[in-house]
């Protein structure tokens, strides 16, 4: 089942204003818009200068449920609310009954946002835990459940036009259609291409023919896109892109292998605390933190 842009606009408008909700369960297959709504909830409750004190972000596979409950039950620092975000809740190992217990009696001074992906990167449905219905029931009593389904092609094209416009690029319907049909309906992939177009056509207009020519010229970018996808949970996505790079001849296998070796060496160094500072190092360090070893 597909969803419409107007549906999501209503949801974002409803989130405006702090409200009394203490629990949010964001669930579905449309991860990009789900993450945008999570960011909006965070921004609504946590001032930027206090995020270091009152914002906690966890990932399901790394979540210590006792640490989560202790943090959620503690008072915020110089603010009315503390916000906790658990991404990839579907990957949490154990602790589900304890989580149900918290959701049945949540702290009034904390806002908790759960992101539950219902499908993996290959599109296969993820089996929810047995306790999921109990969690949903508790969330319904103290907050909101928001379902996220992917946009149909027409709304994806409209979405691309609006996103490009915000980044200073004018796309007509034909140009946006070429873009969406070239990269598919994954909004992360569409946004990635819009970011590139924003650099090439800053303040200008891109035609369908120009986009066709440009999309066919992304050789090195394809490798960087592959590297960005090499994180736990996106294995199928990374393998799919690797297959397309090799099958289309976008890059030689030896070049891909060279960049992958360099990338994993960088991850190992970052994991060991070896390296400089700056934005690039911090980005690699964050990615390295997603790996167990």
UniProtKB/TrEMBL annotation:
Annotated GO MF terms: DNA binding; DNA-directed DNA polymerase activity
Enzyme class at the top of the EC tree: transferase
Pfam family of the protein (one): DNA_pol3_delta
EC numbers, comma separated: 2.7.7.7
Record key words, sorted: DNA replication, DNA-directed DNA polymerase, Nucleotidyltransferase, Transferase
InterPro entries from the UniProt entry: DNA_pol3_clamp-load_cplx_C (IPR008921), DNA_pol3_delta_N (IPR010372), DNA_polIII_delta (IPR005790), P-loop_NTPase (IPR027417)
Catalytic activity: DNA(n) + a 2'-deoxyribonucleoside 5'-triphosphate = DNA(n+1) + diphosphate
Origin: domain of life: Bacteria
Domain DNA polymerase III delta N-terminal: 25-122
One GO cellular component, as annotated: DNA polymerase III complex
Keyword Cell division: no
Example GO BP: DNA-templated DNA replication
Family: Belongs to the DNA polymerase HolA subunit family.
NCBIfam families hit by this protein: holA
Protein name from the UniProt record: DNA polymerase III subunit delta
Organism: Eiseniibacteriota bacterium
